[in-house]
Amino acid sequence: MSTAHLVRNQDGHYWGRGKRWVDGRDVARVMTFSHQDEAVNTVFELSSKDIGLRCDVLSLNLLEGKLPKLEISTIPLPVDPSDDPSDDRNNEEDLENTPGSPPSEEEMVSNKDEA
């Protein structure tokens, strides 16, 4: 029987393949490690960036080569600021209309027509 190692934090979230925390609903998104030392190294790297982080390395037996169902965390996942669509840094319309920005082609054409 094969064994997989997972990283789980104090909120019950699992370290995911996309380099962010996942809640465990979709086991395909959970990062698995074939060796325990790889998982321990990941915990070290994560905790060096977040000193408040507390993690466990779970060792699970694979069922027919797949992870068994995982306990799903009831605590909401942390919000990644790069995923927020209302973030001004990601809103191109706001960037186009900022004072001091060069006029768009439509503005230049409409200004010519008015003159």
Q: What is the domain total for the residues?
A: 1
| Distance from first to last alpha carbon | 80 Å
Structural class per helix/strand content? alpha+beta
Task: Output the strand order for the largest sheet.
Answer: 1-4
- How much strand content do the residues show? 15-25%
Uncertain runs are none
Q: Number of helical segments?
A: 3
Q: Please compute the radius of gyration using only Cα atoms.
A: 23 Å
Order of helices and strands: EEEHEHH
Q: How would you describe the shape?
A: elongated
Which properties best describe this structure?
115 residues; alpha+beta; two-stranded antiparallel ribbon; two-stranded antiparallel sheet; 3 helices; 25% helix; elongated
Describe the model.
The model has no long low-confidence stretch (mean pLDDT 83). Strand 2 and strand 3 (21-22) form a beta hairpin. It contains three helices and four strands, in the order E-E-E-H-E-H-H. By secondary structure, it is of the alpha+beta class. It has one domain (3-114). The longest helix has 14 residues, at 36-49. The strands form two sheets. It has a two-stranded antiparallel ribbon with strand order 1-4. The N and C termini lie far apart (80 Å). It has helices at residues 36-49, 92-96, 105-114, and strands at residues 3-9, 14-15, 21-22, 55-61.
